Fold each of these.
Amino acid sequence: MTTSTQPVPAAKPVLRSEGEPLAPRVFRLVLQAAIALSILVLLTLLIDVLMDGGSKLSMDFLTSPASSTPAKAGIEPAILGTLWLIAVAAVVIVPLGVASAIYLEEYADPDRWYNRVIEVNIQNLAAVPSIVYGILGLAFLVRGPIELGATIMAGGLTLGLLVLPVVIIAAREAIRSVPQAIRQGALALGATKWQTTQRQVLPAAIPGIATGVILALSRAIGETAPLIVVGAAVFVTSNPSGLDSKFTALPIQIFEWISRPQEEFQLLAAAAIIVLLVILVFMNSIAIFLRNRYQQKW
Amino acid sequence: MPSPTTPGGSSAGAPSTGSKLVSGRSRRGEHIIQWLLAAAALVSVATTLAIVVSLLAETILFLQKVPITDFLFGTEWAPTFADPSFGVLPLVAGTLLTTFLAILVAVPLGLGAAIYLSEYATPKVRKTLKPILELLAGIPTVVFGYFALTFVTPLILQDLLGLEVQGFNALSAGLIMGFMVMPTIASLAEDAMSSVPAALREGAYGLGANRMQVSTRVVFPAALSGIVAGVVLGISRAVGETMIVLVAAGSIPNLTANPLDPVATMTAFIASIAKGDAAVGSVAYETLFAVGMLLFVSTLIMNMISIRFVRKFRQAY
């Protein structure tokens, strides 16, 4: 026994002694530092924005149009533009996203090549840079075959296409998490496939789908680059009046103010950022609320 | 008695004729529904095709005027000058530089966070930390740009570190972009590490390994394909990111590897030329699509690699 363990220890004690004292503790500290640093940057960012923009926030700021005098400038057209854009995007992505997800989860045979193409394609679209969607919007919706001009309709459709993959992926996950037993039960009672899907699977998946839609829309709200390319106007003094009106949006207004050299405008940008972040936090809390309140654990 | 017989009787009497009727009638409806659903799924395929067509059409026009070798290998980018030149290398260099800086930040932070969340954190800690990282991922990029321009550059780089940087520089944009990309890497890597079977860990613990050894020598290699997928996707995100570089790195095409210089990336160029309202049909307008094509193809390749690796680890466990 003792003779046979003699040659092995050469490796073993190293493992043991390294094990307890220093290296693992340092390793754990390094890992914690990685997370702490990320949180620190996030906090610094939030505090910086609050300190810069807090003093500029007022009712007047929220209800005034853009102006070349910093003291009078506001973000009403930008807020309304953002709401219009999101409404258009939502109208596009909810039916398309849910229908695609139902097809892929309930109907498509995953072994067929065309269904695999659709699947890989959606994963791919989710990672295409947002500015490329802007180019698509510019070429197809603003100028090319559809020629909507730089309108709310074109901007909203562009944002809708941009976040459609996010919705599809979230809706698929929600549909997949409905237990198979529910489908089998409905089918055994004589329901057709669509009846099963429509009356059993879909209602059970709605909280998950709604969460996905809200998160997708909150991503769309912050998108700036595609709207720049589609041609959002940077200086808008009147509120949008319909789908065919020119528009600006909160992130566009923020970008416009950041690009100006005067400090006053930078502070306005910070104030608008606060408004944008408040909207995002609000939407995310709805999503979290829905997830916790309605999502069933099967 | 009467109430049970009605449904019972109808279903008992109907089967032979009823099932034929029902299946015959509903099958057509079912088929129509299936086609409609498939059509909706095809919209995303059509989107990809539309992206390719819109990029390709103008790129071909562009390449008829500018030889492709001048475009890909030229070292000067000045498409709107009176004497224009169309060498895309300065934009590529700007993209590579900011991406490199971002990855330098995002990979260690993202992997560190992933290992901690997957191997060390208690479920309760994980439940608090993950939403915070999601919050970081949800910050609009124009806000990161503001932070890089008005906080990182003047206060951190210039005042605290005393670097000789101008207001616009690749360094602050790249560093902050790293924090934007970090949650992407962390979430994919954590996903991969969490799906490594517990038996592998238990085997290693049983042999006397400690947590660090289990994390770095067992879980990390076992989850490698997922980790690679995360890093590649992170690089693709950084390459495609527009607002941070547009706001904080300036938009001066600059063939440089010095992070203290201002640079323009491919994305920043596309945004600034689109903002400038170049006339349709002009070469300047077409450059937008040519650069967009380059951007699309390079991110597409990275995305495909990433998807491949994700599938690999999903299959393994």
Amino acid sequence: MPPAYIPLLLFSLLVLAFPVVTLIVLKYIRPGSGGGPTKFQPYEYGILPETSASRPYSTRFYIIAMLFVIFNVETVFLFPWAVLFRSWLAAHLAGFALIPMFVFLGILLVGYVWLYKKGAFDLASLR
Amino acid sequence: MSPMLHSILAFVQAWWVELLCALLIVLVVPLIAVYIALVERKFMADVQARPDSTRVGPHSLLQQIPDALKLLFKEDLIPANADQFIFWFAPVLSMTAALTSMGAVAFGPWFQVARDINLGLLFAVGVSALRPLGIILGGWASNNHYPIIGALRSTAQLISYETTAGFALVSGFLLAGTLNVRAIVEIQRTDQAWFVFLAPVGFFIYLIASIVETNREPFDLPETKSELVAGSIAEYGGFRWLLYFLAEYANRIVVASVGTTLFLGGWLRPFPNVRWLIWLDAAPTLLLAAVGAYCVFRAGKQPAREQSLFMWAVALACFVVAAIFALAAPFGHLPFELMHNGLYGAFWLLLKVSAYIYIFTWLRFTLPRFRFDQLMRLGWHILIPLALINVVDVGIALALSSEFGLNRWLSMVITTVATLGAAMLLLHWNDKYADAASAGLLADSSVVEGTHAG
């Protein structure tokens, strides 16, 4: 690990310790809780819950998750290109810098249009 | 002296600034978060034309302290059929992710936990991407319908707009050519322009995406207090709720700092290269002196003698601190250098971050809430293609000015107009689509609730 990351590591440990230590310490300080079993029911506007909350949910959310993976990987490819872009321009390699990314984004655009036509982005029409 | 102790001492000597900064962030950010909430309450009272609480301290400035203490000592309730460990762990994860990403943010040229790491902003963006994990774990572990619906909505919304924010940030990185926070700010000084002027559309998209990512009011679907109780955190109370609350406010500070660093010139003052504006460097001192003068002005008008005395005391404190700053500025010795770099560097950044967060609050009380499908349509149908087009256009603008010697501002204007034209086309198509879609929506209302089992 490069040395500049060591303070960051210590910092993240400190940040993790803050809620953990407070939670554990407060457990012994704060007054104890009483009450019967109904108190520990899930909050359901005062009535007893009829079903467990673990039940199937709309597949729409899975599609959004997959779309996220696809498009966020695109940003991962765009980041290094964006960082190197100015140094390529300084070396007068504008074509080299722009054209491959145009091809890449063109392929992405075709995929986007296909998904659009399929209705993957329409949360209303997915059944 | 044992070698172990010696190496620890050497480490502290080498990294004491970073370690001090780490400690300060952990100690101060929760306090700042709590006071942002107070400002928000005052703002809300102002917008709704009603008085806010006035009891605890002057202008209820101390109100948040008993509130926080109450939350700390409140009964700690875990629902019977919740997943105990994950219920315990989820708020801790949220809080840790939010504060850790603050480690890469530079509060001034000098004040940063991770100095000189090349991936500064990538670290901040990447770690704060753990945010949906804390929310969905908390919602799932509660084992209650409302939190699960809230958590699913929240995750869908956060991950959609994370992509949008990523594409918007790329347009800034194109202009910066680096991910190192300090280098990004320095480039905005040498380029003599904040990147918001070179990539206005990119900043606008980032602004919207950052509001969505922090669950602010026009897009606060994960919480929607009137529909989903409190969304994914409905079962949380006491200190655990406080952790989620702090995480949310810390996130707000993180997205505002990332946006400020990349687009609004970080800790640079306005027009950093204009010589005759150099007095702006003394802005913190001048501001303190102005506050002191205002207190003197108000002291005579107080109804009670104690209040008047208090105002005089505040004025005196302001003047003393301002005098110390003014006298310390010319000296190069260590404590003064520390104060100068830490304070004067952080002043403009914190001012811009405050303005950014103020805009969040302003929008909260101005706009009505979006519907879930409207929010997702805005993201996937308009903002993501627009952000991609914007990336291409910023790239073309840079290439035009470097290859053909076109004026930087001229090429910027041309490409921005092209981007805006594309935005108009996208909006036009989307309007045609939206009419058809809302007709379908009315036929199936379960879509709006997000509970429709597929």
Amino acid sequence: MLYRENGQFKGSYRADQQIFPILQDRWMIALLLVVAIAVVPLVASEYMLRAIVVPFLILSLAAIGLNILVGYCGQISLGAGAFMAIGAYAAYNFHIRVDGMPLIASLLLGGFCATAVGILFGIPSLRIRGLYLAVATLAAQFFTDWAFLRIKWFTNNSASGSVSLPDLYVFGLPISTPAQKYLFCLAFAAVFALLAKNLVRAHIGRQWMAMRDMDVAAAVIGIRPVYAKLSAFAVSSFIIGVAGALWGFVYLGSWEPSAFSIDRSFQLLFMIIIGGLGSIMGSFFGAAFIVVLPIALDSLLPDLGGLFGVAVSTATVSHVVLMIYGALIVFFLIVEPHGLARLWSIGKEKLRLWPFPH
Amino acid sequence: MKSRSLITAGIVAASLAGVSGAALAQAKEQFIPVLSYRTGAYAPNGVPWANGYVDYFKYVNAKGGLNGVKILFEECETGYQTDKGVECYERLKGKHGGASLFEPLSTGITFALTDKAFNDKIPIMTTGYGRADSADGGVFKWNFPLLGTYWTAADTLVQYIGQKEGGLAKLKGKKITLAYADHPYGKEPIPYLTEASKMHGFELQLLPITMPGIEQKSVWLQIRQSRPDYVFLWGWGVMNSTALKEAVATGFPREKMYGVWWASAEPDVKDVGEAAKGYNGLTLQHGAEPNAKIIKDVLATVHDKGQGTGPRAEVGSVLYVRGMISAMLATEGIKRAQERFGKGKVVTSEQVRWGLENLALDQKKLDALGFAGVMRPVSTSCADHRGDSWSRIHTWDGSKWNFTSDWLQPDEAVIKPMVKASADRYAAEKKLQRRTPADCQS
């Protein structure tokens, strides 16, 4: 009734090709942005911003990057954590070694370094695919783990291998309060999501999807596999690299290589599988599921136990959280193997017919 | 539809519970957050520590609190993971009127929280771990690596084996291997040992072990190949018992192995049992103290009333006592702050910082607290946030730990300049100014 595009006529190709062709969607997104920019920083508590929303935004960004490679181009990668690490350490070195380096420039340069390494580790994808490629990208993970643990130069000769940063400023404004950090990350997530969405809608994204669906057929119709696969590796590692830099700079503030371990790669892969492969929206859903759910369960369970007069110890809570969390992953994958993004679009389809379904 | 409404009801009920819980919190309580790990690969070591920490608060509360102020504590499970630890910190720091202090029990988390502490103005206590250079209170205003750091530990060990060899000069040409957890914790002693190897002329071999350290065959093959005179073990959790098993397998004498205080507790050697006989550990002041007065008091006031957190058998074990000492230092810091800012009042985290900075635990106070024989007097100052670092060596006899050395102390002449240089480097990196004498009074 409310959500129906009847009467919205497109008069030009431009209007027909918008990201959100339906007026209601555009309003929703505008409203969402207004809420995210103006309302959330005022309403959300410090804990909410620092411990939940900021990691959610940064990991969403990383998930978008991985989704381009895995979801759109079909190249399974287990090296996401490695590219995050490269982004973070490269950005750190640019920031600390070059005097007066602007923060945004450091972050983007970190992303470019990740791009370079990403292309390098993408080269095997020209010959191998599927699970074999996944194992090859695993090499990136082990290589970076080794490099950042052993090569002292990357960590500025820090004794413990843990690096930390001075206070952050953007155009003279400090990035220190939770709200500032949140807005900074929000800006990155929004701009990169928009860029990614436009990339995957354009000819380059169509090339990626053609490679994903059947690479031989794609080559036959004139798509160069080298170009398509390596560009996917490049774009994906760039976004993941920037996300890694943000994770280190804004969220952690000081970190050691274990912040970007193989667990992080798996976490990102789960995000896009649960959220929806080949969907920008799905990356956000997946990140929300993986980041927010354990924390929410973690803080709700003791209260829930208190309700029934049961004192729940922290050990029990963290075991139960893992169990519920695992069960939910299995549940969602059975109910909708295409991820939360697919559930979302089914919901929208139903809403269109509501309240008069066939 | 039914399941959905059930879930909704659950969420509503849970949030209501949260609201009422907050409303019930009373004003006259000093809140101490507890970051612990009772799950994961490090749980065998994390659990006794956490039980000791929490039991001591229960004991203090049963005895009437801190001059009448009850301690309120809440646990948060970190799993020894830095990002989870940061989340726990953010969750707990503002609760119940604000956290008095944090004890992260992980060097990795300590690194992450050190930067936050400057802004949040909450002291970070790291009893026997954390960053060694944070002993310099002139730069690290909010860090308290009380009782000892990894640099003092490494120095004490070097002094001790020097003594055994018949003088530090005899170390020349010897070979010492550091088998360490590849983690900020394990890397902390490296700068000191590198320096010491140059000073005394021994050869230092560094062998990193990837956490959690279940797989370390290659490391021990290297040790067998290079035949070091001594092995220093800087492991945590399951890594230690695995290392001992591998030492048995490769035939490296356990008598030549020295563990830091986190590598010399019951969980590390219990599984190896008789085979670990002769393995030495450096203690952080105390060892296993089943006969101390405080242990008997805790058993009587907490465990006999059915309030004990863990099994009764572990009370008095090495890590349990360490948890208890950490808790005691925290409460003594708060009591010291009360002396200045008002007895029987709830003190703020900034006032607690002053208390920790001016700790003066003399023998009389320790005796009164029941810690006689468990630890030696400790006092801190504005410049020295670590306090006196006393250790002993204890040796596993196959079933229990026995002290095999007298009290030892590190050589401050070596440690002090290193700490200052490292702290200055940190200050320069962070663009911090050293604290002025006036700031010390605040």
Amino acid sequence: MQQENNTTPVQMKKKRGITKTDVQQFLLRGRAFIALILVTVVFTSLSPQFMTTENIVIMSKHVAINALLAIGMTFVILTGGIDLSVGSIVGMIAMIAGGLINEGINLPQLGIIIYPHTWMIIVLSLALGTLMGAISGYIITRFNVAPFIATLGMLYVARGIAGLRNNGYTFPNLIGRPEYGNTGFEILGAGNFLGVNYSIWLMVILTVVAYIVTTRLPFGRHVYAIGGNERAAELSGVRVARTKIIVYSISGFCSALVGLIVASQLVAAHPMTGDSYELTAIAAVVLGGTSLAGGRGSMGGTLIGAFVIGVLGDGLVMMGVSSFWQKVIKGAVIVLAVIIDQVQARMQERIALQEQQEMK
Amino acid sequence: MPNPTPVPSAETTVAENIILTAENVTKVFPGTVALEDVSFHIRKGKVNVLIGENGAGKSTLMKILAGVEQPTHGKILLDGREIHLHSPLDATRLGIGIIYQELNLCANLSVVDNIFLARETTQNGLIAHKSQKERARKLVKRLEQNIDPDELLGNLRLGEQQIVEIAKALAQDVRILIMDEPTSALSAAEVEVLFRVIRELKSHGVAIIYISHKLEELLQIGDYITILRDGRKVAEEEAKNVNVPWLIEKMVGRNPANLFTRKERQLGDVLLKVENMTLPRTGGGYLLDHVSFELREGEILGFYGLMGAGRSDLVDCLAGARPLATGSIQLNGKPVTVTTISERIESGFVLVPEDRQRYGLVQTLSVMDNMLLASLKRYIKGFFLARREEKSATDQQIKELSVRVANPQQPITALSGGNQQKVVVAKGLLTHPKVLLLDEPTRGIDVGAKSEIFEIMNRLAAQKYGVIFVSSELKEVLAMSDRILVMSKGAITGEFSHQEATEEKLVAASAVGHGPSNGGNHYAAGK
């Protein structure tokens, strides 16, 4: 029996107190949060306008758009999937909602045009976005298509529909007409509650809900299990296909919500709305520490990741950095974050080795 | 051979004891018949043992009973009524639980989350973590283990993971519990605990289906024994009426002793000297704990141990597949300083990996392309690959290893497991190695192919190759090795010459450090 070795590692650890490696580990684990603080401090010192209430409100509104998409994306990525279609669904839903307000539902056979109420337009749009996500999920699970491919296809289809809806033209002036009873769409984007914009409230509410779903509901547990070991999850009785379809539906729902918010903020719907939003959302998720392989990550991390990207983007704009350099810097930050992720994993193994060398 | 006559008693025992029946079940996979007209009766409150060689159809039958696979023909009867199991969920609902051989757990979830996966206890829709944790703690305690329910599963050692898999099955209220090789990673003490739990379950009327390769073990715990060979049922008998030689004869269909014979050889100089090979384990502890040994020219050096003892890690390290490994390696007296896999191949190491399908072969390539993959450099003329040399090298290997293949351009997937394994060996040999690292080279191949692989090993040793032979099959290690090293928990715990090695000695050495319920647990805790 080699009993003498067994208890030593635990005792060693207690004796050593806080070491350099402990500090390194802490810095690496909290990297997204540290990055956020760093970026904020740098921009505050460089620009006096940065930390003004006005600017913070504007930034938060920008962050909210990306964060809402990133929340849906986090669900997808936690299962080990990816959703490339979110930006296109944003555009498609903006165009659908814009069309419903300005043109209504035309039924030439009956010779009538139906103008739905604004709240009905919102419900219809959200349902349609969810359905688009569900279709991606169904294709992925039913026909065993790689998520990258299925959602790439959806990216083109949804963007195509966005263009088709009005032949590539914008729907302007989405304010409705009092006589049709479809006014008030702009409130979603411009309205405040307790002085805070609705989109920011939605971000907060959805983050809290998503946090509870991922940490406290069986569904959330199943999402993590599928990302960690899909086969094991299936053999344990998890309904893998259904869970995945729901996950993509959530992402579609979030995309539709963003589509509505963006159209409402601009009081116009353009077919290219939301172009390449999916990449920013993926970047936020990855920055927040969620593994693209699935099974590891958190909603809190995603929110912080979205803030890092938002603050970085707006900060650079305020500094007058050219948009080309902005892209270079953003790209570098994202790759750097993933490198740090890998470094952390390797460091953990090295720490294990160190501890045992000390032991001997 | 004692008691060779098939006794009808097993077939005609009182019917009311039978809870689950597989009736004339046939399962056809594309290309093979995995099960042919097999009937299997499972008795209430008894341990129903199912044995057979690899590929005999045990796992397929289990998967059918657990709802993972559906039979091509035949029916399943539960309490005399026909049932249809379309998914594992259906089986669970009917009270059929299963402990899988290849552990089906999520490394990214905690112990308690794994135990209750897809069966979460909820309160107002939210997971009731506290009560789950309490139940998990009780289950683990029942298995006399000391595992923290909140620990991440990936941080546990393999034996503990197996305990979790067992706890997961116990967490359901099962009437029928299928155990597929539940003891493969357990120490002797842990097996004792498991057997106590099994007896307790029996007394509550739970029917156990028990699959194992460890024949002594299943005679100890089993009540009824069913033997499969090549997808057919060859015998059914009460455990008290049979003994180990009878089981082997039924399983193999011939006397096992003459299947593999080792040829006496003259050993040469020291070829390989490994000192203090060490590999840390994520989450604390060692995968390899200062391993040192020597290998001579023409020697077959067997490595025996339980699953997770570190044998595969050792050959991986030698092959250069583990960058974190430390320690010194000398080949022909010269230190090996290169660390990457391709450099190690050039210096003379070649690995035949344990998982043939995933790491040994590229499934989309032909037999020939697979064979040449590791040695392509040798066939470059100018910028191009020299077709003719490639072809002649392939043909020569096919002939020497007698790979049964119609044409080297055939897809690799068209070959049987044994012939695929020969292709992997040929791929290694084409790199002109000095040390062959064979990790479980006989896993999942039939008896005939096994003896052919052993024949090849004998021939290579005679040609002064050094052969490291990792195996979990006691009989094979004993029969083939000039010398046997036993590993446990990453360290070498025994060394035996061919003459002095016995099954008992190997098993005892492989259990070193697996103390009753505490061995190694602290490693996991000390992350």
